[in-house]
Design goal:
The protein has a single domain, classed as Rossmann fold, CATH 3.40.50.300. It is about 40% helix and about 10% strand. The protein contains 24 helices and twelve strands. Strands 9-10-8-11-12 form a five-stranded parallel sheet. Strands 5-7-6 form a three-stranded antiparallel sheet. A hairpin with a 2-residue loop joins strand 2 (about 45) and strand 3 (about 50). The longest helix has about 40 residues, at about 65-100. The protein starts with a strand and ends in a 10-residue tail after the last helix.
């Protein structure tokens, strides 16, 4: 039964609720009720102030009906509240995601938890430099300065875990078991009258068939098809006929430019190509030893068919044709002279990239790879020569970031990626050895920036377990940029190359620098001073060890 609240309010002060017009029966009429009609407005006094009731509320006397109304009211409010919270949450999530992406967050965080960004690319290209770009004045971001003490603790933890332990070198039989096909193709002896490692291989293919039809480099790379089209045309002219059999000259490189990315190897490659006694593979960076022989084009694309060693050897056919012409010349045949043309290969991943081992070699010890790239190269070419170009690892990392980051590049974004990468690296060294972390595929792909590439001494020490020190030439990009003529003379002497005319030398040393920083990256300016300080602390113990190994304090990079 419904009650008139006005009536109740009017009568309740005198405790005469039973006299309420509505309470006395169902015939109560709001139009006839003097209170409901407003003839006698009931003033309500609260704290000595008069307040008029402007609304008429209806209340149910039945308890069930009363509670139903209450719940309806509460349910409506609850729905409104939930809807509002959902809208607010969506707005906040959108703000955080877009703000973090574009650097718009009010309080930038030095750490990003959650899904890790994988490396955008695995192909390495190097820059001679952009040396001047790093020393422009930059704004100090106060919020990032506050990050330093926390990140310094992470670096101190990493430093405390650093141990340079000599690795156990695998024996030759173990290597044969891992790569039996490679050992069946490459001989253990080469032609004595050639400075470059070459040998004759019987060609068993059909003389009407395409000799490069199955070459993976030709199949997967459109830009190399022009090279292979030319090789097809001249291939038959270079077959050597002996006792009704056809032979082709096969060659491996005499020297390798093995690293590091963004340290000027492209410029060194371009200058060495100009020397009359130097040839290179048809492709500057085949990445065969580190990736293609495992079927890796890009790790993010998964695995393809493995590139056989024959596909790699095909890349040296152009140079082999020229060496063959020298070997068949009268000077070599009659006067006992030897071929002095040498071949080089310049994949900047060769020194450091052993990420594929985990997918193929399962007999590891505590996460360390049982076999490294250098083990196999040394097995076939114990006399190979290796050239390494290095650069201040702090500047190398920033250059690497600018080259590979696809969008939203900034000094602040670089700082956050460095902080996240340091956290990940710390987590690894707490549980595993330094070598295991450096060659850890999962970690290396999880880190937003490639910190591990700048740990030069870790890789160099592993190369020195199989090659002698006099077989490795280590250069600095800073020296190459300031005195090009001096560094090129060091390379010529190391490779035992013949003398050059003044014109030839000028052509090699005065050519413009190759692969310099892109204009759009130059406008971003240098990294934040705080980021530089953090990276200096991180790389310091590794640079110190490197300077000790090479007996050269220039590799401390104190002046850069």
């Amino acid at each position: 039964m419904r009650h008139c609240i006005n009536c109740c309010i009017h009568l309740l002060p005198n405790d005469l609720h039973r006299q309420c017009f509505r309470c006395r029966g169902p015939d109560h009429n709001n139009q006839k009720c003097p209170v409901c009609r407003g003839e006698n407005k009931i003033p309500l006094y609260t704290d000595s102030k008069q307040m008029k009731w402007l609304a008429v509320l209806e209340v149910r006397t039945d308890h069930c009906e009363s509670w139903n109304g209450f719940f309806c009211l509460r349910k409506g409010k609850l729905c409104s509240l939930m809807f509002g919270l959902i809208i607010m949450t969506l707005v906040m999530v959108s703000y955080i995601l877009t703000g973090a992406k574009h650097g718009l967050l009010l309080i930038p965080s030095p750490f990003h938890y959650g899904a890790f960004a994988s490396n955008p690319s695995l192909m390495d290209n190097e820059s001679l430099s952009d040396m001047k770009d790093y020393y422009q004045p930059s704004k100090m971001n106060i919020s990032y300065v506050k990050d330093y003490p926390g990140i310094k603790l992470i670096i101190d933890t990493i430093t405390s875990k650093i141990e340079f332990i000599t690795r156990q070198r695998p024996d030759l039989e173990e290597l044969r078991k891992q790569e039996p096909h490679m050992f069946s193709v490459i001989p253990n002896k080469f032609l004595p009258n050639s400075k470059n490692p070459c040998w004759y291989e019987e060609y068993r293919g059909n003389t009407t068939a395409d000799p490069y039809a199955t070459n993976s480099y030709a199949l997967y790379s459109k830009r190399f098809r022009i090279i292979f089209d030319y090789l097809r045309k001249v291939f038959w002219n270079h077959l050597y006929h002996y006792k009704d059999k056809h032979y082709r000259l096969r060659c491996l490189p005499h020297f390798y430019i093995i690293g590091q990315p963004k340290c000027g190897t492209t410029d060194l490659y371009d200058r060495l190509r100009l020397h009359p006694d130097v040839r290179f593979s048809a492709i500057k960076e085949p990445h065969w030893w580190t990736r293609k022989r495992f079927g890796i084009i890009r790790l993010r694309d998964g695995f393809h068919d493995r590139y056989p060693v024959e596909d790699y050897l095909d890349l040296f056919d152009l140079a082999a044709h020229q060496i063959q012409s020298v070997l068949q010349s009268d000077a070599v045949k009659e006067h006992g002279k030897r071929n002095n043309i040498i071949i080089g290969e310049a994949s900047a991943s060769t020194m450091w990239d052993n990420n594929a081992w985990i997918f193929f070699y399962d007999n590891s010890t505590e996460g360390e790879p049982p076999f490294l790239i250098q083990d196999f190269i040394h097995a076939f070419q114990p006399n190979a020569k290796l050239i390494i170009m290095l650069r201040d690892p702090v500047e190398r990392l920033y250059s690497d970031y600018l080259y590979f980051a696809s969008a939203n590049k900034s000094a602040e974004d670089f700082h956050e990626k460095v902080a996240e990468s340091l956290q990940l690296f710390e987590g690894c060294v707490l549980d595993f050895s330094l070598r295991a972390c450096v060659y850890n595929n999962t970690l290396n792909n999880a880190m937003p920036v490639r910190l591990q590439v700048g740990l030069y001494v870790v890789y160099l020490l592993d190369w020195l377990t199989v090659f002698n020190k006099d077989q490795i030439l280590v250069l600095r990009l800073e020296d190459h940029a300031s005195n090009m003529r001096y560094t090129m003379h060091m390379v010529f002497q190391f490779l035992d190359l013949g003398p050059l005319s003044e014109k030839q030398e000028a052509l090699i040393t005065k050519s413009p620098a190759s692969n310099t920083r892109r204009p759009e990256d130059r406008s971003l300016g240098p990294m934040l001073p705080t980021t530089k300080a953090i990276l200096r602390d991180f790389y310091r113990p590794f640079n110190t060890k490197l300077a000790q190994v090479l007996f050269d304090d220039a590799f401390l990079w104190k002046r850069t």
